[in-house]
């Protein structure tokens, strides 16, 4: 690298929010029954996180966090779950998953 010229290597530009726009639009129309499970990403005390994708569009995927409602109520964690939902729906970071939608079954 030439340090005399003062030229710095170009850093790649950060991803734009457009990356999520397509997924956000698709999520509005998606029902839980439209999703197919690809793999389990992780498991915890309240449930598990699965990699899912729309059955009719294999080009996009989502993380689906399934939570055991009975366990949440038994351990009196409802406020924590609602707070997590509020935070994840409002966050705008490339390092944190964006929450597009919630379901009940």
Number of strands: 3
Main sheet makeup: 3 strands, antiparallel
CA-based shape: globular
Biggest sheet, spatial arrangement of strands: 1-2-3
Helix content: 25-40%
Pick out the low-confidence regions. none
Distance between the termini: 58 Å
Strand content: 15-25%
Helix/strand order, N-terminal first: HEEEHH
Average pLDDT: 84
The number of helical segments is 3
Kindly name the structural category.
alpha+beta
What would you report as the Rg, rounded to the nearest angstrom?
Answer: 19 Å
Architecture overview:
The mean pLDDT is 84. This protein has three helices and three strands. Strand 2 (47-54) and strand 3 (62-67) form a beta hairpin. It has a three-stranded antiparallel β-sheet. It is globular and about 60 Å long. With 105 residues, it is an alpha+beta fold. Helix content is 30%, strand content 22%.
Summarize the entry for a quick read:
The chain is an alpha+beta fold and 105 residues long. The protein has three helices and three strands, in the order H-E-E-E-H-H.
């Amino acid at each position: 690298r030439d340090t005399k010229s003062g030229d710095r290597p170009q850093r790649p530009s950060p991803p734009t929010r457009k990356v999520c726009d397509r997924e956000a639009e698709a999520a509005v129309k998606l029902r839980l029954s439209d999703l197919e499970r690809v793999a389990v990403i992780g498991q915890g005390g309240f449930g598990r996180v699965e990699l899912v994708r729309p059955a009719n569009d294999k080009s996009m995927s989502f993380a689906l966090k399934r939570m055991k409602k009975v366990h949440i109520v038994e351990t009196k964690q409802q406020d924590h779950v609602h707070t997590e939902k509020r935070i994840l729906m409002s966050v705008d970071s490339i390092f944190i998953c964006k929450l597009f939608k919630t379901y009940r079954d």
